[in-house]
Amino acid sequence: MAPSELLIEASNQRARFALVQEPYVGGTGRVKSQNGIRVFQYADHGSGTVKVAIIVFDADLHITQYPKLTTTNIAVVGIRVRNWEIILVSFYFEPDLPMDSYLAHLRRVQRETGARSVIIGGDSNAKSVWWGSPVTDRRGEELHGSLEDLGLCILNRGETPTFDTIRGGVRYSSYVDITAVSPNLYSLVDDWRVRENLTSSDHNGISYTLTTRHINKNFIKHTTRIYYTKHANYQ
C-alpha cells in the first residue's frame, strides 16, 4: 500500500489511527514518516528492525508518547479524550521466540502507565479458541492467561481468518491477530470485523469503532474509527 493509497483508505474509513505490524521499512529499518500522518515507533536505529508502529491520521488527536515502553516489537502511545487517557499498544510476537519477555512487557506497560483504559492489537503468532482458532497451542494458553491477568477482554469474533494466503496453490489460514480492550471500553466498541480487502498483505485488516460519546458528553467527535494493517508500504 503506497502512502497516497494509505491516506485515501484512512480517509474512506474515517480512521483516526492504525495499529500496524510488520510494516514496510526499506533499508532504514524504520517506517518512513510523511505529510499527513504521524508515525510512532522505536527510535533507536541501532537496535534492529521495527516490527510495529502506531500511525495517527488525525492531526487534532492529542498523543502522549511512551518511548521507554516502546520497543521494536511493542509500540505504546496514549490518546487523550478530554481528561481520559486511552493507552494504545501495537505488538508483534516473533513466532520462534518465547512469549515470556513479551508478556512481561505488557504487564510493565499497564503498571508504569497506570492505565485503566487500554486497547491492544497485534500479531500474537499464537492460537487459541478464545480468538477463533479451532485449536489452542501452548503460546495461546500463555497469552490468554496473561490477558486474563491484565483484565483485558478479547474482541475477536466471527469465522473469517486473520491470516489468509495461497502459496503454491495451497491455502493457508489462521487466527493469530488479536484485539483486546479494558472492560470499561468493551461496551463502547462496535462493529469489530476482519476486513479481507483492506490490505494487499497475507494478513487481513481489522477495523472497529470506539464510541466516545459516553466517555465525555462534551467531546465533539463521537466515534473513533480504528484499523490496523500488515506489511503496509509507507515509502
Assigned CATH superfamily? Endonuclease/exonuclease/phosphatase
Share of residues in strands = 25-35%
Mean pLDDT: 84
Low-pLDDT segments: 217-223
Look at the helices and sheets and give the structural class. alpha+beta
CATH fold type: Deoxyribonuclease I, Chain A
Euclidean distance between termini CA atoms: 9 Å
The Cα radius of gyration reads: 17 Å
List the helices and strands in order.
HEEEEEEHEHEEEEHEEE
* Residue share in helix: 10-25%
| Tally of helical segments | 4
InterPro entries: Endo/exonuclease/phosphatase (IPR005135)
GO molecular function, one term: catalytic activity
Protein name: (apollo) hypothetical protein
Question: What does this entry look like structurally?
Answer:
By secondary structure, the protein is α+β, with helices and mostly antiparallel strands. It is globular and about 45 Å long. The protein has one domain: Endonuclease/exonuclease/phosphatase (Deoxyribonuclease I, Chain A, 4-Layer Sandwich), CATH 3.60.10. Strands 2-3-1-14-13-12 form a six-stranded mixed β-sheet, with helices on one face. A six-stranded mixed β-sheet has the order 4-5-6-7-11-8. Helix content is 17%, strand content 33%. Residues 87-206 form the Endonuclease/exonuclease/phosphatase domain. InterPro entries: Endo/exonuclease/phosphatase. Pfam families: Exo_endo_phos_2.
